[in-house]
Amino acid sequence: RITLTTPGVFPDIDFCDTPDAVCPIKEGKDTLEDRMWSVAMFEWAERVQRYRYSSEDESSSSSWNYEEKLVEFVNGGMNVFEYYTKDVDTDRDNSFIHAVSSIVDRGCHNAPHCFQFGGPVDKLPLRRTAFTIALSALNIPTMRKELVVEQTLDHLESKRDNIQTNLLLYKTKSGIYQSQRYKIDDFLDALYRFSRPYDASDISYSADTTYFYSSDHPPLYMGDPYMKHGQKYGLSNIALFLSNGLELSIEEDETCDELNEHQVSGKLPISNACGQRGLSYQNMVCVDDPDMACPVDTNMYITAVTARREFGAAPALQCGPKYRIPSTGYWDFSMVQESELEAYANDNARVDVEGCCWWGRGVLQTKGTCSFGRLNYYLGKRAADEGRESLFSEIDFCSNPEAVCGSASTTKHELLWMSGLFHWIDQVQSYDKGGFNYMNELHAFADGGMRDAVFIKRVRAIVQVGCHEPPCESAGCLNFPCEGASVEDENAGVRKAYRTFFELNLWDSFPDSPGGSNTPTPVPTLSPSCITNCTEFPSSSPLQPTASPSKAPFTPPTSVPSEPPTRVVDSRISYFEDLSTYLKLRRTLIESEIFVSKSKNRDDRLYTLDGFLNALRDFATEGVGDLLFYIGRGKDGNFDHGLTNIALFFAHAMTRGIAWNTCEEVNHHLIDGKLPLSNACGQHGRSYSNDICPQTDAAMECAVNPNLEVTQVSVGDSGSPEFFCAPTSTNPFTGYYDPVSGNTGSSTPISNQAGRTDVEGCCFWGRGILLNQGVCDIGRFNYAYGLPAFVDQRSSARYNIDFCAHPEALCSDFTIAATEFNQFSTTIDTSEVRYLIGLVYWADYVQEYNWGYFDYMEELKIFVDSGMKDDSFVDQFSKIVVDSSRDADERKANFKRILEIFMTDAPTQNPTLSPTRSPSMGPTVRPTYEPYSVERPPEPQGDDSSEPGPGEEDTAVNPNKPQSDKVTFDLSVNRPNQPPSKTVVDRSSATHISSSGMVWALFFSSLGILVFSCSYQ
How far is CA 535 from CA 453, 462, 489, 491, 494, in A? Predict the structure, then answer.
């Protein structure tokens, strides 16, 4: 037929007369190869791609269309079973290849029942093998491996809020709280770095990131690349990992180190560091390879970084040689101290802690000399020393196992998760003993609907005691059997697994039948009455936090259960989430115009919108004592009031910490063209050590220590000299810095504006986003969140640091130096402090400001309700509240621009931050009121749901209802009428679509095959 419409590819050859011309013998190789391929491709296009079959029986469903079946086959993952059980019909994955081979061989798709050419398909197994080889040669497996990793991570990203809010929680006697140690970003980053296929392309994975690699292990299993819904197997694997982590560490006061909790004859031995429930951690050797285990160093002395934080709880585990700690007693709960009257033994009769440094650490509580030795061999210093790839080449986990929990400050967040992921890959994914192959059983579990409680219990046993059918000889008992060879409360693990599957929405997302077929099975019914001791499926979100605070409560133990979340707190959280969503919709302008320093350096930005919102969440929903950051709730409050309060906070911050991209005040006040080094004591005539609190707060302020020595950590983008403080005994006077010449003079004393030439006791220069200065501001923050809160057993206690004695900890992670109890330094993360210190100041000082004729909260509401046009509001703020008229114009310009970004429908892109002509404080045209389009919870009604604003009584005012003679900005900018209240953040950019999908499309189109459609969210 081709010769009737075109001259043909080979117009001079009549293949009917000379069929052997398809395979010419005498012609050149290029001609031969081209002709053979051309004829074969024509044959394929003619007889295979055009194949259609439709039964004459209209009621029959036996029609067969090659192009449709090809799309179905490819979109279904090409059904190459990597793992399957014996009861699975293994011919299922051959059906498409069988049909195509039948068309080629017999002329129809269902050989041996072809009418014209009967008989079976010839060499079907060889064709099946050849197809797999062709896939590999075309690099299809790598692309599909990358695709299934992407699909799995995308699913987890879409459940980010569920994971952070409903899973990453810890429990105390006083309630359930949001974990600040186990965070969703660190979890997803660890998964990304441990799941990269070893043959992945550099296009999909950044060359600047290090990834897990081991010649003895596969990467973390993320799903079957050849199965339809193949990601469900990887998600099941991750859900099981996470549910075990919830039980072992996250829910247990978000600990990283093992807790001392196993009592012996009613008392808690301090020597439990050597092993609990009959286990001996230092005797957990590697049976198959003894050289893999860490050697036991009897001179090692370590104290755990984390322990249960409730009042009266046992202290952190500790190890040390006998010459340091000759014997140990037990923890006396009544006296809240160790009883040392007599030595008290653990289950293995240990009354010392020499060589006992191998307790559990990390999300899966990796423990024992063998496990830490394997961690060091594959991820640590030993791998690097022996020339193998290593994620942590500088960390020797054998000499410093506590590095997993915080001794290595730069890797502490990564190691919490990565130590557990390696343990999972090493001990769980590879498990194949006693007829139980984890990978095969995982696939059967996922195909069966992820409900098999027996499988969940067996996996939990592998994680905790080393085998799937306890008691396990490999558990580490000093004398087998012991209590530690079996798991406790098997059903607890099942309940946590079910809760994890529910929060990840795995039951509703994937079908149940084997091979990922299209036959769905109903998901389990969630029992509305099952709250505790559930034996099957969980109720909706069974562990909702009362307020999701990030602090670590420090309260005396009590037998009284905490009350359920109140409507007030729930309403605050919902209100905050609406505010957060609204601000995130303006992320681009906020990040590009507000969180930018004067140098416009955007490569290493210290302050971000996400960082601010993370800190604001707690302070706006729960606060500290009676202090709450005002976001619009309260008497006569509305959304605009809250946004304006934030706008002024940002405007002030743009003249402070954001201005120089620094957490610490910079030396900027010139005296006769020079910068006195004594400006550390105070700039612009102020004396920070004399900025005392009012009488009511006098107990909060920091005492000035003349012997304290502190040096500034960073000067940001300013180029100024570093502040420092030191006693006059070592530094009698200070000189100056000449910003023109860049020289420092120290031969003669130079005074600041207040007349100081020394820097004794001058350690309280500004810190944080607002650069809060002085003994009062820093003392207030210390009282709210620092060591005094722990001492007073207040629930706001978060940082076990005396910021008055260590003000440097306000701007950098605080490292506790090695001591006689711990041979390694330990580090406390203080990254949120830079925001919190400003929020505390704003709520405690600015919002409470009411002096003379200026009441900040009243003036704020008047300003908003009158149309935001009165310049005097921000002028009075600069002059009266913060006493800083010198930068009032800059603050005003910032404020106007931020209001434009926050309030108007179409903010102007990239305006001048300091305009030559001051814009109007309000829009030029009063907008018509429209209800907010952010989906809101119903406003609380009645006395039980009301809450006071700062210093006010509350009434149930609906911020969505326009108030008489008030102007409210339309906040529904570029949004649909009813979007969800929570947004899903896409991991990749919109233009990325799907790299794997694009490669697939190019590949198939190059072969002239109808391309399958690819959808991407």
Answer: 9, 21, 12, 7, 8
